[in-house]
Amino acid sequence: MGITERKIRQKEHMRTNILAVALRLVKDEGWQSLSIRKIADAIEYSVPVIYDHFANKEDILYELSLDGFRLLERTLEKNKRNIRDPRELLKAHAESYWNFAFKNPEYYQLMYGLGMPCSGSGKVKPELNVFRNHIGEAIEKIVTDKKSTDDETCFKIHAFWSVLHGLISIMMMRCSDIDDSTMNKKVMDDTVEAFIKNL
Question: Whole-model pTM?
Answer without folding.
Answer: 0.86
